[in-house]
Amino acid sequence: MNPDGREVALPIQPLPFRLLTRAVPVRREEVTALVWSFLYFLCLLASYYILRPLRDEMGIAGGVQNLPWLFTGTFVAMLAAVPLWSALASRLPRGRLIPLAYRFFMGNILLFFVLFQLEGAEVHAARAFFIWTSVFNLFVVSVFWSFMADLFTHEQGKRLFGFIAAGGSAGALLGPALTTILVTRLGPVNLLLLAAALLEAATLIVGRLGRIARQHQAPARDGDAALGGGPFSGIGQVFASRYLLGISAYILFMTMTGTFGYFQQARIVAGTSFTPAARTALFAQIDLLVNAVTIVTQTLLTARIFTRLGLRFALCLMPALSSVGFLALAAAPVLSVLVAFQVVRRALEYAISRPAREVLFTVVSREQKYKSKTFIDTVVHRGGDALSGWTYTALSALGLALPTLALAAVPLSALWVVVGLFLGRRQDQLAKAAPVVSLKAGDRA
To answer: In whole angstroms, what is the distance from residue 176 CA to residue 194 CA?
Structure first.
C-alpha cells in the first residue's frame, strides 16, 4: 500500500520467470547468468553425447580384452595434458583460456573426421578416438565446472547448480536423440561435424558469460586475470590439503565402482547377438533414458535436496544406492538388471552427486578451481579407471564370475560413503569462513 492507504498493484512478472522460480530458487538478478550457463552446458554435453555412443562401440569393436590398455592410454594422455593446461592457465586470462581449450578439441574432432575417411586406418583411429573422447569428456566438463565455481558463490551453487546441471542433461538428451535419428541416415562418422558445431556454440556462450562476470563480479578481485604459478602448482596443492585429498578419494571411489560397472556392461552386451549398429543404438537409448530421468530430478529436486537435507546427504546418496545396485547385479547379472542399474546410478551421478561435488570447489582458491580441480577431475579420475580396469581384468583372469566381481564393488561403495560424510562436514566449515567473491546478489546480470 501507499502511505495514503491506497493499494498498489505489484508488477507482473513474465511467465517464463514465474515458471523458472517455481522450479528453481533463483533470484531475479541471477537469471541471465543462470540461463546462459544452462545453455552453455546444453551445447557442451550435446556435443559429447553424439560422440559417446561412437566411443563405446569402438571400445567393444576393438575387443573387450583391450579395454584396460585403452583406459591406461587415457590416463597417460591426462598426465601429459594437465601440466600443459596449468601452464596455459598461469599465463592466459580466463576469457582466452577456455575458448582456446574448446577450439583445440574442436580441431581434434575435425581431424578424426578426416582420419575415419582413410582406408586402412580404421582400427588405430578407433583406438585413438576412444582414448581422445575419454580425455575430451572429463577435460571440457571440468573446465565448465571450474568456470561455474568461479562465477557463483557456494550459497548460489547449492541453489543453482542443480538447474545448471539440468542444462547438461538437456544436452545429453539432445545428443543421443540426434544420434538415434541420424546415425542410419548420415552414418556415424558424419555426426562428428555436428558435434564440432555444438562445441563451437558452447565456446561462443563462454564469451557471453565472461562479459556478465566482468560487469557483475565483486570489484575486490579480477576474476578474468591469469592465475600465475607454475604448471605443477595445482598438483602440489592437492597433496597439501586434506580437503582436496578427500575430494580426490571421493572421485577415486566413484570411478573405481563406475569402471567395474562399465566392464560388467561390456561383458554382458558383448555376450548378446547384437550387431555393431544395434549396440550403438542400445547405448544411445540408455543415454536417452538416463538423461530423461536426470533432467526431471535436477529441475525439481536437486536444489531442494541440497537446501533441506544438506550437502552431506547429497554426497552420500549415490554411494549408498550403488551398493544396492551391485548387490542386485550380483544376484542377476543379465541385461535388464544392468540397464536398470546403469540408469539409476548415472542419473544419481548427474542429478545429485555431480552438482554436490562441484559445490565443494566453490570454497577453494581460484588456482585450486582451475588447476587442482582439473588434476582431480582428469588424472585422478582416469587413474582410478586404469587401476580398477586392471584390477577387474586380474580378478577375471582368476576365474571369478560376474556375480562375484559385482560383489567386489560393495566395500568400495561403503568407503565412498565415509568420504562423503567427511567432505560435507568440511565444506560447511570452509563455507562459513569463505569471502563472497562471485556474482553479487544485488546486481542485475
So the answer is: 12
Highest mean pLDDT among 108-117, 118-127, 143-152, 275-284: 143-152
Alpha carbon 121 to its chain's center? 31
Q: Give exposure, 227-236, as e/b (b: 16+ Cβ within 10 Å).
A: bebebebbbe
Residue-wise pLDDT tens digits, 46-98: 999 888 877 766 655 555 555 566 667 777 777 788 888 888 888 888 888 89
Q: Which of 271, 264, 249 is nearest to 383 (CA)?
A: 249
For position 15, what pLDDT does the model report?
52
Could you tell me the three cell numbers for 161?
547448480
Angle 31-61/276-297 helices, nearest 10 degrees?
160
The 10 Å Cβ neighbour count of residue 215 is: 11
Tell me the CA distances in angstroms from 149 to 29, 87, 164, one per residue in order.
Answer: 18, 20, 12
DSSP symbol at 224: T
Q: Which of 349, 374, 332 is nearest to 227 (CA)?
A: 374
Burial of 335 by CB count in 10 Å (0-12 exposed, 13-18 middle, 19+ buried)?
Answer: middle
Q: Using alpha carbons, select from 30, 196, 34, 57 the residue that is nearest to residue 113.
A: 196
